[in-house]
Amino acid sequence: MSYSTDITDQELFIIEPLLPVKKKTRPPDWSKREILNGVFYQLKNGCNWCDLPKDLPAYSTVYWHNNGIKKG
Prior knowledge:
This protein is mostly helical. The chain has a domain at 31-72. It contains three helices and no strands.
């Protein structure tokens, strides 16, 4: 399912170089795009983290990455 907050290919191209680089430990379960879509969904809708739709990454994953983005 897509949401109005989902980022486009062009937006991802602009944003991706600005994101912190993750250490290569194991392959990620979620793409950067999916995590950003979760962050933007929560920011636009102001919902509780645990109320993110189930087709987005787990709220704990999105929340953890959101805090990393703020600090990075």
